[in-house]
Design a protein that fits this description.
Length: about 375
Amino acid sequence: MKLMGVINLDHELDQLNELTYFRAGAAVPFAGRYRLIDFALSNMMSAGVQDIALFVRRKYRSLLDHLGEGRPWDLDRKRGGLFVLPPDWNDPTDISAGDLQHMHNNRDFFDRSTGEYVVHSGSQHLSKVDFCDLATYHKKSGADVTVVYKHIDLPEAEHDPCFRVEVGEDGFVTGIHNEKGHHNVYIDLFIMEKSLFMQQMEYCIAHGDSYFFRDAILKNPNGLKIAAYEYKGYHAVINSVESYYKNSLELLDQEKYNQLFSKDMPVHTKIKYEAPTKYLEGADVRNSLVANGCRIAGEVEGSILFRGVKVEKGAKVINSIIMQKCVIEAGAIVENVILDKDVQLTENRTLVGDSRRPFVIAKRSTI
């Protein structure tokens, strides 16, 4: 069964405040060396998906720089591979809107792909869904479309915007809604046969609709048979600064880290060659995730340090996320803080946020 992938960022809002001032949410750094887009791409790579379209509309320069030709995901191919498709269309007769505009104006991608089924994903839900197993489940069910959900025992604030999935005893969907008390959270992922996908796209455009999931699946005007696939592995929603901070620091739990970075489905990212981290005399690092290229002479506890971070003697980093090439000078203290790339905190400065509402500093700032 041949799969083709669509990673659709058109409907994703830039909700991470300072972290999305200069980049799309999918390009936000995560877990010391990755970007949020890496997880969806790596899942598709693990399933052998050879044609992947990335629909982007705004602030995609950082994504283009990160993705390049797609080599880390084995997508730099002569035929097929990764297609980053920003809005660039000039058809005066085009009446499409929303993400349907991407699909309509990039129809050549679908027509030329050898994939028989479309796997459609976003980037805000981090998971380890086995797309091969999903495709097998979908085919056996006889459904027109299969949506993926995760049962959440204790829904939190980041789950509030998510759709919920009502599932009958036969495994088919009986309703999709946004009732916050419901525990089956739709993780922004579905699979559908390509020919049916294209038919539904044309139908929605002809009827003045704008968004594929909302207008073809949620409203379901054509009476599609919708199956539900329950995913039971690692899952995190990154749709706010608070959810980003919480889910990042939860990776300091070895069990959760191993769930996300499992050996059977590795996560790939842009390769950067850095020297190993150097721990100088007096360095004290506890329960932290430290990428390579760092230089540490101070104290780091319960934190995540990206590549090339410098923590000078007498500085303290506590329960914080420090992105690439930041400098924490001597005597400075950060606690419950997120520093974006290339931030410099000068000597003896103190930044303290709240564990429920971390303090965020935009990239290239000097404090």
